[in-house]
Input
Amino acid sequence: MSMTIRDMLIRAAAERGDGVALRFKHAGAWRELSYAGLLTRARRVGEVLAGLRIRPGDRVGLYLENCSRWPEVYFGITGIGAAAVPVDAGLLEQGAAHVLRDSGARALISSARHYGMIRDLERTLPGLEHVMLIDGTSLPLPRTRGVTYRDYEQALDGAADRAATAAAAFERFRPEPAAPASIIYTSG
Output
């Protein structure tokens, strides 16, 4: 039987639930996230995306620096059968716009650091419908030209109860083993 990335995370959480999946520094202190905790957060990401009408086969951009949220975002996207489109956080406007436009990304999860650039680019990204910003609570999160902005943590908090049920998106929208999990753009 073929295993998907989703299946591997579920198995790791079942076998090593309290084991450390991630160790990262936050506000000067080391923190840990267990495999069970990573699965819980990935399920919430998947639930939020499904609520935005993201379905298997859709593309979702990840415009993030290396951070503790990256794995949960990636697992959440791929866990509902959508394809993750990592965008190098060091790309300038033109390069980021090319990756998002060419891939057909319907949603984007980014850090608030990129908010201004995303706002400037959104008119050149006709397929982009949703943007979730990590640490976006202090920003004006408008709905413009059909693009809806949300704060990432608030969205995940709102999806917590639904994500924990048997009817969750993580259960309804399973990836096909042969379907692409990622679309990766390289510089050469």
The two ends are 35 Å apart (CA to CA). The first helix runs from residue 5 to 16. The CA atoms of residues 141 and 178 lie 37 Å apart.
